[in-house]
Amino acid sequence: MDDTTRQQQQNVHFTLLQKKLMYYVGAGLCFLSELIHLYLLPQQYEIFFVYGLIFLVIAMSQGVIGVSLLFEPGRRLLSFGLWVNALIVVLYIFTHTIGVLVGFVFFPLPIDARG
User: Fold this and answer.
1) 115 falls within a domain
2) Interval 63-88: pLDDT, tens
3) CB 77, CB 84: distance < 8 Å
4) Whole-structure pTM over 0.90, yes or no?
């Protein structure tokens, strides 16, 4: 390979339209996640107050990340969004495999169509 081909492969930059499209898709997915957590929020409050608070914090963080994605996010926000979403996935896997601490015992949550 010659140098120009190697430089073109290393310098992959997205166009402004592609960046905007990725931000809008990411914001839409964050808003969808926020709506899902808000939909499940009353159920979680009935189970245990702290679970409802966790769902509320998750929904609020998804909303803030979604809104920020619409207004040219910085590198810190993108990193924060990735970490929050990774933590949500890990928490979901943990609560549905190992379980939720109830007293001194872990009870795994059932997996149903609504999560």
Assistant:
1) no
2) 999 998 888 778 888 888 889 889 98
3) no
4) no
